[in-house]
Amino acid sequence: MFAKEFNAVNVKEEMILDADAMRVREMIQQAQITSTMVTQIYSEHIDKVNPTINSIVEKRFQKASEEAEYADTQVKKGKASGKLFGVPISLKESFYVKGMQTTGGLVRRRGKFAKQDAEVVRKLKQEGAIILGKSNVSELDLYQEADNKLYGKTNNPRDLSRTAGGSSGGEAATIAIGGAAAGLGSDLCGSIRIPCHFNGVVGFKSGKGQVSDEGSYPKEKHPLQRRMLGIGPITKSVRDAELIYRIIAKEEPEQKSLADFTINILPSTLYPLSAETSELLDISYNKLREGFYVERKEPPYMNESATLWQEIMSIDGAKMAMNAAFKGKSVNLWNHYLKEVMGGTARNHRYLLWSLIGASIFKPSKERVNEIRKKIALGDVLLDQYLSKRILLFPVYHTSAPKHGTVYSEIFSIRKTFKKYMPYLAYANVWGLPSLTVPVGKDEEGMPIALQLMSKVGNEDALFQLGKQFEKEFQGYERAL
Q1: Dihedral sign of CA atoms 459, 187, 210, 321 in order
Q2: Where does 2-258+436-473 sit in CATH, by number?
Q3: What is the residue extent of each domain of the chain?
Q4: Using CA atoms, how far apart are residues 234 and 428, in angstroms rounded to an integer?
Q5: Is 236 exposed, middle or buried (0-12, 13-18, 19+ CB in 10 A)?
Q6: pTM of whole model > 0.90?
Q7: SS3 381
Q8: Are 70 and 101 a contacting pair, CB within 8 Å?
Q9: Which of 82, 91, 43, 95 is nearest to 64 (CA)?
Q10: What are the φ and ψ backbone dihedral angles of 285, each rounded to 5 degrees?
Q11: Comparing 65 with 8, which gets the higher pLDDT?
């Protein structure tokens, strides 16, 4: 009865699918719409679109509906409290949610139900958020395409033949279709920023140690790897990204004056870039010069960052990832890889197997690990000063979303082509920098292109301020389906 009655007023449904989380919260609080109605709109839209894009891999619609009904009773009583009160959101599959599976895309972890919420999930629930479902990932979050042997492949909703990116590809695709008010992802190697760029949504990678990784699977244990991880929001607007980051962050970001900052835009001639991406960097340069001191030069450690990222990811020869993938058993990776490539019969995706092989081949020596530690320590000091009053403006990837498999072949090639395509992604991970991704344009085929703004930990407020300006100046979020 409700669905028929609501579908008769289709404009409201479209408005909800397009609305960001803060707008949805406002409408619920002002009793313009109920949380129950919003939850049903999202659920029905996911059911309609998900068979073609495969972004949501575990639904929580019934419990979400019950929680929405309770939220509506609280609104009627005047007890609606919380920054996301009654607002339905989605989450990357890698976050523990009590009563839901957390598999990391591994077949062997099917049926692994969480007994408690991840710390970030607890904080979001505390502010009234309602969890609709969990979204697709790469196996063990280790490569940049959301494709695994348990749940399959996520397609880009703007062109099903193209990748949605990864490892938070399912989450970015869900927000791109308006399947939830907002979402949450994680980024160890571009895993928030690539999907947001490919799908045309906003994303924020937090800086090192600023958001708890408790209850995020798999948990990075080596300090050099752990500092590269940033957990953060995937949203339809910069203001939502800021709101959610402030909810999940350990500390409130300090207020900054954007007028004090220099903007350094990466020169478009340093690395391969599509003509459209290069043009958008040039356009940004001309627009920003009207209100800021702008420079175009290579920042410190730029050339080294991609190699450092690759070495840090291989630092233990992928021992921890091997243990997670094979439950601690000793296996011959080459046999598994050939079994998968030849017949598709292995229990792990060939992307994961090749990643593990690569990590074992490129494992740095103990001496090299010590050199990396020293270099990181020196770099942290230098960049803390360099980025004190400076924001970096980088591309996210050299092109818009390509066909499935392309990104993996570019980043994990034995020809080390990652050195061409990873520097502007690896920079934020290696140096533990917060980075905000904002859609700014499209290529000639209508696929989104985003740019990323980054600075040191402590300058998050300035990033959000500049991101909002970019949002006004350029196109911002546009729903895919």
Answers
A1: negative
A2: 3.90.1300.10
A3: 2-258+436-473
A4: 17
A5: buried
A6: yes
A7: helix
A8: no
A9: 43
A10: -60, -45
A11: 65
Rounded to whole angstroms, the Cα distance separating 177 from 192 reads 17
Alpha helices in 181-274 (DSSP H): 193-199, 223-226, 238-248
Instruction: Kindly report whether the peptide bond that precedes residue 218 is cis, defined as omega within 30 degrees of 0.
Output: yes
347-406: per-residue pLDDT in tens? 999 999 999 999 999 999 999 999 999 999 999 999 999 999 999 999 999 999 999 999
CB 99 within 8 A of CB 113: yes
| Six-digit token string for 59 | 């639904």
| Residue 262, CA distances (Å) to 254, 310, 315, 379, 440 in order | 18, 30, 35, 20, 20
Three-state DSSP at 40 gives: helix
DSSP, collapsed to helix, strand or coil, labels residue 449 as strand
**pLDDT tens-digit readout, 92-136:** 999 999 999 999 999 999 999 999 999 999 999 999 999 999 999
Q: Which amino acid is at 162?
A: R
Radius of gyration of the chain (CA): 21
Distance separating alpha carbons of residues 478 and 481, to the nearest angstrom: 9
pLDDT at 43 over 80: yes
> Rounded to whole angstroms, how far apart are CA atoms 30 and 199?
31
Of 357, 374, 352, the C-alpha closest to 308 is 374
